[in-house]
Inverse folding.
C-alpha cells in the first residue's frame, strides 16, 4: 500500500522535473545501458532486503562475545610498552583533531 503511494509521488516529481527542462520521453536506452540499470536496481533491491531483514533483529548482550585479547609484544621486541601491561592502539589520532574556536564579537 505504501509502495503505491511512493510510486505515485515519484511519478509526480519526475514529471515536474521533465517538464521543467523540456525533456521528451522519446529517448531509448541501449542494451548496455539497460543492463547497467538492471544491475543497479538488483543491487538496490538486495540492499533493501538485507536492511529489512536486519531491521527486525533484536540484539542483546548475549549476542556479543568477549573480544579476543590483542597480541602482546614479545619482551625482546621494541614496542614501547612495558612488559606485563596491555597496550591498546586506537585508530583515533589526537594530532588530526580539528579544534573549532568561536570568534569573539
Amino acid at each position: 500500500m505504501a509502495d503505491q503511494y511512493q510510486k505515485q509521488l515519484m511519478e509526480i516529481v519526475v514529471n515536474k522535473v521533465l517538464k521543467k527542462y523540456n525533456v521528451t520521453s522519446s529517448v531509448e536506452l541501449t542494451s548496455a545501458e539497460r543492463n547497467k540499470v538492471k544491475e543497479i536496481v538488483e543491487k538496490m533491491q538486495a540492499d533493501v532486503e538485507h536492511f529489512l531483514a536486519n531491521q527486525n533483529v533484536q540484539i542483546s548482550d548475549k549476542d556479543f562475545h568477549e573480544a579476543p585479547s590483542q597480541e602482546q609484544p614479545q619482551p625482546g621486541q621494541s614496542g614501547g610498552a612495558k612488559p606485563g601491561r596491555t597496550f591498546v592502539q586506537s585508530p583515533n589520532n589526537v594530532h588530526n583533531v580539528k579544534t573549532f574556536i568561536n570568534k569573539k564579537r
Observations:
- The CA atoms of residues 4 and 36 lie 25 Å apart.
- The mean pLDDT is 76.
